[in-house]
Specification:
The protein is built from eight helices and two strands; from the N terminus they run αββααααααα. The protein is mostly helical. The protein has a two-stranded antiparallel sheet with strand order 1-2.
Amino acid sequence: KSNGTVPPDASVTTTSIKTGSSRGMMFNMESLDNCLNMKTSDYEPFHQFCAKKCFNSENVIFLDKAISFKREWTRIFNVPDQSINSARQTMYRVAVNIYLTLINEDTANYAINIEGHIKKELHSLFRAAAISIASRRTSTPQSPSFQVTPWDEAPGPFTNPGNDHPLRPLTRHSIDKGSSSTYLVSQTDVSDDPFADFPVPATFSDACFDRAMASVKHMLWQQPWQEYMRTRRESIPSV
């Protein structure tokens, strides 16, 4: 695996492997890992390729945010004198933001495509929080500027993906339809913290997105990454 010193364009010349498929040469998973984890020179072109050619740039955005989530988890839990409960709540907010903007079909215009059992696991972790937020929004329709996630405009890697992935109108009905579960919903003013009365699930951890990441990354590697890298290689003048 990479030790962090791979040259930015090394994947173009060193990461193809032979397979028995009719596609012949395929670029290995490590080349995609380098691109995503190290933000090599291929990252932005690949993101644009996915958006314009494959129409699935939400997958790249999700992986980027999930990778940043795991890095931030490691950082925040190593802060001296950090309260574990406070750190868990902070990271839960970040995770809910990812869930709302890129996973939950009721709030993300472009949700990632993952297996049903993986999606079910994520719903069990974040759906109740989403309903709590929706309840606060719908209780004050006169305040259209109320943010779904109060950290969206904060600087850093966890901001809302922006115009490429706007949030759909969020209502409790749209999220709770078909559900018989009862969720904790705060009745305090919407200007308060929407998570003030919401407990972080005991099963929440830095591995919460791991299954979704593996699924999305494998899907990207199988086709978009192969097509991008072949196009990239063909554009290099032969010597």
